[in-house]
# Entry
Amino acid sequence: MPDKPTPEGDRIAKVIARAGLASRREAEAWIAAGRVSVNGKPISSPALNVGPRDRIAVDGQPLPGRTRTRLFQCNKPRGLVTTHSDPEGRPTIFGALPKHLPRLISVGRLDMNTEGLLLLTNDGGLARVLELPATGWVRRYRVRALGRVTQETLDGLKKGVTVEGIHYGPIEATLERQLESNCWLQVAIREGKNREVRRVMESLGLTVSRLIRVAFGPFELPPIGECDVKEVETAALKKALGPEIVRQAEADFEAPLEAPAPFVPAKAAPQKRADKRAGPAGSPLSRGRPGEKPRDLERPETGRSKHKKRRRPDRSGGPRPKYPRST
# Structure
């Protein structure tokens, strides 16, 4: 093992992300906090390249081997935040996922009160590429909003709109149904800025009361229950991503599904202390003299404990009464 990482190779944050532990941004924060070491020495800067022979550890634990790139579709309900841990103690989607899943990170985020399709992956590189606006994947939503609107007004969003100094790109919105006090819309966006749909609808005089993401790029919300997940098969995932995204994300579809567990030597079974009264190995314990038949074998087995007391009869010879006789 070299004492220092080789100049060739990949950036340390990228390697951690590809191992599925975190996104690159999170990995950089871990490095700044001193949680990452290379070849036994803590590092404080992500400006470091590592090679396959370098020993990387996070919080003292070796970096797991790279596993196959996987993608899961999750049906996120309302009331959960999209984070692994929340400073305010609110429930998270990762705390509600099935326990048999590998460690996953989300592709983007959904607000606490937004529900529907949330993509999860074990590959931080893939998550980063799919989040980029340059990827151009369309996010589709169904929106229930309080208020009234016309299709003509919605068509004006196709040119983009600026709300409170923030410019949002072209938005496709279709009036699905107009009721007396609320309406249902279909909205498609490409940028996915923070609270984009809610803020744009507010600029039209609408208040969003329900927001459901039904599609992200080629992936649609499957018919599964809340907090349930469905994995996209490897062949279908590779085809849906396309060669360009696969190249950019450096996705690996040939690695094993799970990293091999590190070798941990089994603990030797504790040896029982030899009884001085015992005979040769395999012989029954004899409490008598050598050659004498073991006493334990002379006493037949009974269903009654030898310490159990028998019911004492009274002086009349009959069964002892349950209660004292009245005089």
Summary: Residues 1-6, 260-288, 293-303 have pLDDT under 50 and may be disordered. The chain has two domains: 10-62, 71-249.
